[in-house]
Design brief:
By secondary structure, this protein is an alpha/beta fold. The protein is about 45% helix and about 15% strand. It has one domain: Rossmann fold, CATH 3.40.50.720. β2, α2 and β3 form a beta-alpha-beta unit. The radius of gyration is 21 Å and the shape is globular.
Length: about 280
């Protein structure tokens, strides 16, 4: 008998959203390839589920591991239906004090690794004429906060990528959704967070203050990762998937306020903007 239970491929499953999502899917009888930088870090997730779970080594910053992991998942399950690009981390600094090596490393994980994995999975989804790509971005993919300029840049990049991807693959039956969490009780602001402390006095009230606040609230954020996982699973089951799915009250309030302000700003310059076109010609 052919098993038509959807197959999930999830990155960054050792902690946080990826861990809770994989645990939920497998507990509900689903199938999933769960990945981390070391399959031993996610072995507990698949220990009691038999062939429904597959633990894989995957550092998304290493292209050769991407190819191996996707091939292994395809060989094991025969298909991939839902790709969840969750792996990534935060880096905070003032723009001026950002360290080149840290910036590039974050782009390798948050952006280029995500791009490469998506490219590797797309031929499978395209052959099936069905599938769903879920990119875990952030409220920071829609808003730039002090100290998060480089992190926001990675998430803005994924949002733009996802816009284009959605336009290309919608006719092929493939859905694309960005999930944009606000502050959740994951390790993002704890052990996973990297910071370059600001030593320039002019940034004391902006970048430095926000870095202190961020590292100080780890473990007390309002967002619940278990509930987020439940919401993502429910999202995949919808007939029509949204392009954006903002998670948490902070996120909803911040994003809607930002978008209203941006729209007001653009509309407020309508006449000046329209004046930059060539004048319309009237046919004789």
């Amino acid at each position: 008998m052919v098993d038509d239970t959807p197959v999930w491929f999830i990155t960054g499953c050792s902690t946080g959203f990826g861990h809770e999502l994989a645990k939920l899917i497998l507990a509900r009888g689903g199938r999933a390839a769960v990945t981390a930088r070391g399959a031993d870090r996610v072995a507990d997730l698949v220990a009691d589920v038999g062939a429904r779970g597959l633990a894989l080594d995957l550092d998304v910053a290493k292209p050769e591991q991407i190819e191996r992991a996707v091939a292994a998942a395809k060989a094991h399950f025969g298909r991939i239906d839902i790709l969840v690009n969750n792996a990534g981390y935060g880096y905070q600094s003032s723009i001026e004090e950002g360290e080149d090596a840290e910036i590039r490393a974050q782009f390798e994980a948050n952006v280029f690794g995500l791009f490469a994995l998506t490219r590797a999975v797309l031929p499978i989804l395209r052959a099936q004429h069905a599938g769903h790509v879920i990119n875990i971005t952030s409220v920071g993919g829609l808003i730039g906060f002090p100290a998060s300029g480089y992190y926001a840049a990675t998430k803005h990049a994924v949002e733009g990528f996802s816009d284009s991807l959605a336009a290309e693959v919608a006719p092929l039956g493939i859905k694309v959704t960005c999930v944009e969490p606000g502050p959740f009780r994951t390790d993002w602001a704890g052990r996973s967070l990297k910071q370059t402390k600001s030593r320039i006095a002019d940034y004391a009230e902006t970048a430095a203050a926000r870095m202190e606040t961020t590292s100080g609230y780890s473990g007390s954020q309002p967002g619940n990762p278990v509930r987020a996982a439940e919401a993502i699973v429910a999202l995949v089951e919808r007939a029509e998937a949204p392009r954006h799915f903002v998670l948490g009250k902070f996120g909803i309030d911040a994003v809607t306020a930002k978008l209203r302000d941006r729209l007001d700003e653009i509309e407020g310059q309508r006449s000046e903007s329209l004046a930059t076109d060539f004048p319309e010609t009237v046919d004789a």
